[in-house]
Amino acid sequence: MANLALQLYTLRDLLEKDFAGTLRKVADIGYQAVELHTYGGLTPVQLRNLLDDLGLQAVSAHVALTRIESELGNVLEEAKTIGFQYIVVPWLPPERRQTKEDYEKLIATLARAGDEVAQAGLQLVYHNHDFEFTKFDGEFMLDTLFAKTDAERVQAELDLYWIHRAGEDPVAYINKYAGRLDLLHMKDASAADGSFAEVGQGVLDWDKIIAAAKDAGVKWYIVEQDVCKTDALACIQTSFAFLQHRV
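Request: output the structure for the sequence above.
Response:
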């Protein structure tokens, strides 16, 4: 499925033990694309060769904000070598999200980096958790962030689990950021305790989500499960089986 990818953070423990072997198992399940969070100790050239050998495409990569601030040129070169189009800001450390001013600094950083990334022919993206649903001046900071950045320079990678966890409607957010949403994190929530679940095994309404995502122009549906209660490879296989004929 060329439009179905896996965020490799889901398999971080297995990747630490056997990076190449774990990627091969991802390909064996049927995934044809991945979103990186590490290069597994490989050089960009080595990683590109490994992915090519396995028939995997790197669509995007989660890149620490500090790297984007301090060595964006290196990140852009890595992206071109490995072949990923989207550079995703995945996380805002707690000390950098305490005040409205913290978010204003983030917005300024994203605006500057978004210009440079676009000039390189690539796309900067911001990935949410639930903490961006803090309100300042009556508005969620996630919405302020996107309102104050150029839609062509800073895209959204909406994480459906975290939107749900924040008490908001994932479908409404997909509709809200239609056209700015090439990447969508597919992640479910357990009915029992709200914890992470395999896609299709929890409480999110996937028929409505997928219909909205198609209307919104989503290009890549990216499976992620932050914590797997059972075998992680079995979890990603369950999610793949649920999504492969739906997206």
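Residues 4-243 form a domain with the TIM Barrel fold (CATH 3.20.20.150).
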